[in-house]
């Protein structure tokens, strides 16, 4: 992948960072804080991670910086700011690396978030869902966050990626000077 990062890419990263933060804030205000920072952490904005398969590094940087902003507003402090953002960075990077198998990329991209956030530290701050109380606390939280991430990235995100991967949309993005990692194609 030969990719030069220019001012347009930096701007696109800013757009994705802002979009990630705003979507999470809107979800926090409308649905409630537990859906962003709780044990069933279904961050709808994580669907943007799937778009790394199409738009590359600007998405990776955007969802990482957006996660820093959102987690800075959350209750778990520096550990969530650092490790939650690293989880997004790894997830989006995996999506790029596996982009030729987009659905698989989106599925695998959900696991770093579940393992790092759920199994790594969130279980210390919040109780796991009662439906999983038969499991050790850290495993239950890892499972819960992974399932939530699968819904956001492999469900919503993959659908969004398929829509954005249509030839007319690809050509429209390219005509505006955006770089894509795929040629115009409707199917994988």
What does this protein look like?
This protein is an all-alpha fold and 188 residues long. The protein has one domain. Helices cover 69% and strands 0% of the residues. The chain contains eight helices and no strands. The chain has helices spanning 7-30, 34-37, 52-55, 57-72, 78-97, 102-125, 137-164, 167-175. The longest helix is centred in the C-terminal third of the chain and has 28 residues, at 137-164. The protein is globular.
SSE arrangement, N to C: HHHHHHHH
Tally of separate domains: 1
Poorly predicted regions are 184-188
Beta-strand percent range:
under 5%
Structural class: mainly alpha
Shape: globular
How many strand segments?
0
Q: Determine Rg (CA atoms, Å).
A: 16 Å
Q: Helix content range of the residues, please?
A: 55-70%
How many helix segments? Answer: 8
State the major sheet. Answer: none
Distance between the termini: 18 Å
Overall mean pLDDT stands at 92
């Amino acid at each position: 992948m030969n990719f030069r990062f220019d001012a347009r890419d930096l701007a696109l990263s800013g757009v994705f960072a802002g979009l990630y933060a705003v979507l999470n804030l809107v979800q926090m205000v409308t649905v409630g804080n537990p859906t962003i920072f709780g044990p069933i952490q279904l961050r709808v904005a994580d669907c943007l991670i799937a778009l790394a398969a199409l738009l590359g590094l600007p998405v990776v940087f955007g969802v990482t910086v957006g996660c820093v902003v959102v987690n800075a507003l959350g209750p778990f402090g520096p550990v969530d700011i650092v490790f939650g953002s690293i989880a997004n960075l790894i997830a989006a990077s995996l999506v790029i690396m596996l982009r030729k198998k987009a659905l698989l990329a989106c599925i695998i991209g959900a696991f770093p978030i579940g393992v790092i956030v759920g199994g790594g530290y969130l279980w210390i701050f919040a109780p796991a869902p009662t439906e999983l109380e038969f499991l050790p606390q850290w495993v239950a939280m890892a499972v819960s966050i992974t399932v939530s991430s699968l819904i956001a990235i492999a469900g919503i995100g993959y659908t969004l990626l398929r829509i954005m991967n249509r030839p007319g949309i690809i050509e429209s993005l390219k005509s505006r000077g955006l770089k894509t990692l795929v040629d115009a194609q409707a199917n994988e």
